[in-house]
């Protein structure tokens, strides 16, 4: 018996008891620990689609997976070259922007749902709710939103893959999402949406914790709990290292 057939057999009681399709998602890792040698990670988001009575419809539904990192305020600065020197010319504040956002789908989002539905569920980079700080002209806000999306896309923090979800036998699905080394720490949500005929007919959510371990965790906790001491060490340590290096060069020269 194949593993797919075994999975369907184990889920048979749930299939018989439900009135609509359900998603049973899972993740290859519930937590990611960042150490000094961390170069990134690959997450596998997978699961099963449970249909009432175990009857798989002839028309295969589509799946969209969204992995979103901690939301935080951010100030985006625009640089201009003035008199040969690059300087901050303008800025715009966003009250909430995800530190990481990745969306993978079985088809392009535009082919699955209309613009309103995509905006409601924040499906796709252009539908992120970035919550501008207010007070700026709409044209300026759009310019800075575009700049923020482009910057984080180039950093590998915002990802969109229109062919990133594989569906097997209309029941099992999986998606791989790359986590870059500079990913922020915090609680991440992995949302899975089942879409049929332009409507979201089922959804499920899982959480992932991204944290620091070892020396990196000690440094991060010290910076929060002992701000003054951490600041003094951050200033004094480079001075001591510079003085030591200068003394070593003087001795060699002598």
UniProtKB/TrEMBL annotation:
Keywords in alphabetical order: Membrane, Transmembrane, Transmembrane helix
Entry-linked Pfam families: Alph_Pro_TM (PF09608)
Transmembrane segments: 228-249
Name listed for the protein in its UniProt record: Putative transmembrane protein
Organism of origin: uncultured Sphingomonas sp
Native organism taxonomy: Bacteria, Pseudomonadati, Pseudomonadota, Alphaproteobacteria, Sphingomonadales
């Amino acid at each position: 018996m194949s593993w797919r057939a075994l999975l369907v057999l184990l889920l048979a009681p749930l299939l018989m008891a439900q009135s609509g399709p359900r998603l049973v998602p899972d993740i290859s890792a519930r937590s990611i620990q960042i150490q000094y040698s961390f170069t990134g990670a690959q997450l596998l988001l997978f699961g099963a689609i449970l249909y009432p009575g175990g009857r798989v419809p002839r028309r295969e539904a589509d799946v969209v997976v969204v992995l979103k990192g901690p939301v935080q305020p951010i100030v985006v600065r625009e640089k201009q070259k003035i008199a040969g020197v690059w300087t901050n010319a303008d800025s715009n504040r966003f009250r909430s922007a995800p530190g990481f956002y990745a969306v993978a789908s079985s088809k392009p989002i535009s082919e699955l749902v209309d613009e309103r539905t995509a905006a409601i569920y924040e499906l796709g980079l252009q539908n992120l709710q970035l919550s501008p700080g207010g007070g700026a002209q709409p044209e300026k806000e759009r310019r800075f939103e575009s700049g923020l999306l482009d910057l984080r896309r180039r950093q590998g923090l915002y990802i969109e893959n229109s062919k990133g979800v594989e569906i097997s036998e209309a029941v099992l699905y999986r998606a791989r999402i790359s986590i870059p080394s500079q990913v922020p720490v915090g609680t991440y949500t992995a949302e899975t949406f089942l879409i049929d005929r332009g409507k979201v007919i089922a959804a499920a959510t899982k959480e992932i914790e991204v944290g620091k371990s070892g020396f990196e965790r000690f440094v991060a906790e010290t910076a929060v709990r002992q701000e003054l001491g951490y600041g003094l060490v951050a200033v004094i340590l480079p001075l001591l290292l510079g003085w030591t290096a200068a003394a070593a060069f003087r001795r060699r020269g002598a």
